[in-house]
UniProtKB/TrEMBL annotation:
It comes from Thermus thermophilus (strain ATCC 27634 / DSM 579 / HB8). It is found in: Cell membrane. One of its GO terms (cellular component) is plasma membrane. The keyword Disulfide bond does not apply. The keyword Cell membrane applies. Pfam families: BPD_transp_2. PANTHER family: ABC TRANSPORTER PERMEASE PROTEIN, BRANCHED-CHAIN AMINO ACID TRANSPORT SYSTEM PERMEASE PROTEIN LIVH. GO terms for biological process: amino acid transport. This is Branched-chain amino acid ABC transporter permease protein. Belongs to the binding-protein-dependent transport system permease family. LivHM subfamily.
Amino acid sequence: MADLLPYLIGGLANGALYSLLALGFVLVYRATSVVNFAIGEFLLVGAYLTYTFALLLPLPLALLAALPLAFLFGVLVERGFVRPLLGRNVVAVIMATIGLAAALDGGVQLLWGPDLKYLPGSLPDLGFEAGGVYVSSRAVWNLLLALPLGLGLLWLLRKSRYGVLVRAISEREVAALALGIPTARILAGVWGVSALLATLAGALLAAASGVGHNLVFFGLKVFPVAILGGLDAVGGALAAGFLLGVLEALSQRYLEAYLPGFTEALPFVVVLLVLLVRPYGLFGERQIERV
């Protein structure tokens, strides 16, 4: 068991980042029904913003300085790019978000270059040893930021006035407009929060592995996480992120030696198997359409 614990702790640490990214993805989908295929690029942009501020400030302050800019970036994407497409054919919106991802990829390389970069500072060391098992500082920071933030966001969506308004817009946007709800402002805020969460995940990942295009591949795992939890279930995104993180850790420990590369494919395999039984995900709302 002691041999397995380090893998499980690492899996929970990765799962925390999956959850953060999936929360932003599901939040946008629930509010606007838009599948944001550029979520990996949101993570990349946020990581580079953090890197830029870290050249001038200690890393904790650099992260705090990057978050408001990330929120503004998300708002600008919604105002200038997404809003004009609302009401269009769903395939057109999907292709547009894929185009946005390609544009952001190119823009990042123009601004910061293609080379892998490392953050010049580090977060305070919070690592500790308990029962003969060392818990890394990275794992502590990931869990310390992701879990309370995810639970807090879930509480806000269920209990706060803002959360009620978001749910009202997601149910019937036209009815929400008729009731005088400031739909445009709230939807812009949702995209801003999504970019903020992606930036936090990107900064934590960059602190461990550097900043480069490799972060986009990490962002691709948001799709199996979101689908597994349920595209309309914010709490499901939080739970599914940790679940897939633990499953990856178990695969790394027991299967990787016999099936090299299987751990990378595991999230997609798990989602495929789950969808065969529950097409709406583990926590998604079952929708019945009568024709």
